[in-house]
Known about the structure:
- It is a single chain.
- The protein has helices at about 5-15, 35-40, 45-50, 60-75, 120-189, and strands spanning about 20-25, 30-35, 80-85, 90-105, 110-120.
- It has about 190 residues and is an alpha+beta fold.
- The chain has a 5-stranded antiparallel sheet.
- The mean pLDDT is about 80.
Amino acid sequence: RSQIQTKSEYINLIESVNVPIFGIDSDGKINKWNTAIENLTGYNRHEIKRKDIKHIFKAENDYIFQELINNALNGSTMLNKELDIISKKGKTIRLLLSSTLQINNDDHINGIVCVAQDITQREIYKVNLEKQIEERTHKLIQALKKEKELSDLKSQFVSMASHEFRTPLSAIKFAAGFINKYYDRAGKN
Length: 189
């Protein structure tokens, strides 16, 4: 099996797989761009090849890619890094990226190949779920406040009712005790 045949198989694999894959050379220029990443971003390989990777990634990711390329040239790869890209239509797409080294025929590292997973919907779901949790937590806090207010009102009512009934009951008890004590005398007169 020749190196040319192996390289051809490698290129065909990258092209045919339904996972977004792209390559970046040591200068930060795009050198591989498969059909899946074309479909995801709207950029075809002819208009994106040899462009700087910063062309499609959000500005806040610039340092990450520079660091990624520098690390790759030193032999390090990246696993499961979340980054945002901008599609041709301006839509933000969240990717989960992993990279491997791109090695030339002389066994020198000359860039990286990134395998991506579109996690945009997962991120939208996560944000919506966090919002729902926040709203429900707020409602729960409000319900707990109302419950405490009702408990305080109940305590105030019991205290007030106890005080209001205590005075007449004391008067009745006093009168009953008085009648009981002087009942015999009251009957003789």
